[in-house]
Amino acid sequence: MSEYKSGKILIIDDNEDLLKAAKIFLKRHFAQVDTETNPDLLPILTHNENYDVIMLDMNFTKDVSSGQEGFYWLDRILELDPSAVVVLITAYGDVNLAVRAIKEGATDFVLKPWENERLLATLNSALKLRQKKLEVDLLKDQKQTLEQDMDRKFTEIIGQSPAMQKVYETIERVAATDANVLILGENGTGKELIARAIHRHSRRSKEAFVGVDLGSITQTLFESELFGHKKGSFTDAKDDRAGRFEQAHKGTLFLDEIGNLPLPLQAKLLAVLQNRQVTRVGANRAVEVNIRLISATNMPIHNMVYDNTFRQDLLYRINTIEINLPPLRERADDIILLANHFITFYSKKYNKDIRKASEPLLKRMMKYHWPGNIRELQHSIERAVIMSNHNVLQPEDLFLQKMGQPEKQEESVSLDHLNIEDVERILIRKALQKHNGHITRAAEELGLTRSSLYRRLEKYGL
After folding, report:
1. Which CATH class is domain 174-324?
2. How far is CA 156 from CA 190, 192, 194, in A?
3. What's the confidence (pLDDT) of residue 425?
4. Residue 144: predicted pLDDT
5. Domain ranges in the chain?
6. For 199-223, b where at least 16 C-beta lie within 10 A, e where not — what string?
7. Residue among 212, 176, 197, 213 at smallest CA distance from 325
8. In this predicted structure, what is the pLDDT of residue 201?
9. What is the CATH number of domain 8-134?
10. How much is the pLDDT for 140?
11. Residue 233 CB burial class (10 angstroms; 0-12, 13-18, ≥19)
12. Percent of the chain's residues with pLDDT above 90
């Protein structure tokens, strides 16, 4: 077995016999060898897979010997991916043509019929070049990211949509103050991340950020957890212990899920916030605390005031400034940005060579409702990275409908006004939905070849 078995090769040639012979030979040496007779499918193929080397015929049936069609597709490939490594193939040994091909961006030039060992050596060199190009691109990306991070104020938060820009503006205005902040948003929208961003950009950034999940604290442990206790004050109190308020002294205290706090505990919390003093359980002396308070909830806290399930005076105390964090469905511009971030993160974590999501998958993600917001997106990407066998995530890798709210149902076919293209587009969509975006299965269902289905996908913009 060759040491280059990890490489992915795409061969475009109108000679099917040549493609079969090349695939039989090369698949012994490379992890993946794909072939295609129709160069018109190149944009779709290169979008859905990251090929290490593309072997491209210079002369298709439209253009028997000049090589102009090959130069056209060479330009298109390099336009789509400037780092692509392309080896041109032709049956005509024109040195001038070969020189021009190299000048216009080809990596190498081979004549057919070729010798297998020479072809393998050519692909070997091309593969090494591809690896070098990817390394250079990575270094450029890292440099650009570092430069952008220096210019961005909130590098810990991912999102550039208009909705998030408003959030950033509010953070920037409020961070330098000691005003109490209430963050409202659905589950999974990143409320704690916003709280930490406020702390990091405040004058208290060098002090502690202490978080408390009020929804997980029982009433019996509430005072001990938040205010601390003295040794021997109750059965399990074996030592003196500072509560979360004292731990956050001079820093920031983050009270998450504050809407879940029962009314009796709301009264105790209000008293501490008004007096800025805590008394440990079992102690007689109050301790002064200097904290910046940030609270968060996914509950309709203003409606809870009208329902008498949340104290109005406590709400006034905690929401000097209110930040409404938008759900992911209202910041669609950030979905791809977040997806790419999680793909990179989990590919590194699980040592997978997954570089991006395919265009069909990105389109599907943009249409999805994301009821679990960023947390659902993160978990979906993590699972997909673990389970996928591709280096580009495909629609079948992400089980969106099983994980959340079903996607919008496709429109039905009206028999009153038949239009062949409309009917074909709808049937293709239904087949893709039925098979979770799996191209081969959808093509079989429709009675089409993969190439025919790809052409229709590009035609209808699906």
Report:
1. alpha beta
2. 11, 11, 9
3. 79
4. 56
5. 8-134, 174-324, 328-393, 420-460
6. bbbbebeebebbbbebeebeeeebb
7. 197
8. 92
9. 3.40.50.2300
10. 67
11. middle
12. 42
pLDDT in tens, 60-72: 665 555 667 778 8
CATH of region 328-393, choose from 1.10.3860.10, 1.10.8.60, 3.40.50.720, 3.30.300.180: 1.10.8.60
In whole angstroms, give the CA distance from residue 29 to residue 27: 5
CATH 1.10.10.60 is the classification of domain 420-460: yes
Check residue 297 and give its pLDDT. 95
Terminal Cα distance for the chain, rounded: 39
Kindly give the parts of the chain with pLDDT less than 70: 1-4, 60-67, 92-95, 98, 138, 140-156, 401-419, 436-438, 450-451, 454, 458, 460-462
Compute the distance between CA of residue 180 and CA of residue 317 in angstroms, rounded to an integer: 8
Half-sphere exposure of 329 (CA within 13 A, CB side): 12
pLDDT of residue 204: 93
Helices marked H in 94-188 — which ranges? Answer: 95-103, 116-151, 162-175
Sign of CA dihedral 152, 158, 159, 163: negative
Q: Would you list the DSSP string of 358-413?
A: -HHHHHHHHHS--TTHHHHHHHHHHHHHHH--SSEE-GGG--HHHHSSPPPPPPPP
Helix axes 162-175, 191-200, angle to 10 degrees: 40
Give the tokens for residue 253: 């205290």
pTM higher than 0.70: no
Look-up of token digits 């709210």:
405
What is the CB neighbour count within 10 angstroms for residue 173? 11
The predicted structure's pLDDT at residue 399 = 76
Distance, in Å, from the CA atom of 397 to the CA atom of 69, rounded to the nearest integer, reads 35
Which token pair is 216?
A: 């997980």
Question: For residue 39, with 0-12 CB atoms within 10 Å meaning exposed, 13-18 middle and 19 or more buried, which class applies?
Answer: buried
Amino acid identity of 128?
K
Tokens representing 358? 């395919």
Tell me the sheet residues that pair with 296: 183
Identical fold, 8-134 and 174-324: yes
pLDDT digits (tens, 9 = 90+) for 184-197: 999 999 999 999 99
Rounded Cα gap, residues 266 and 405, in angstroms:
34
Q: Determine the pLDDT at residue 174.
A: 95
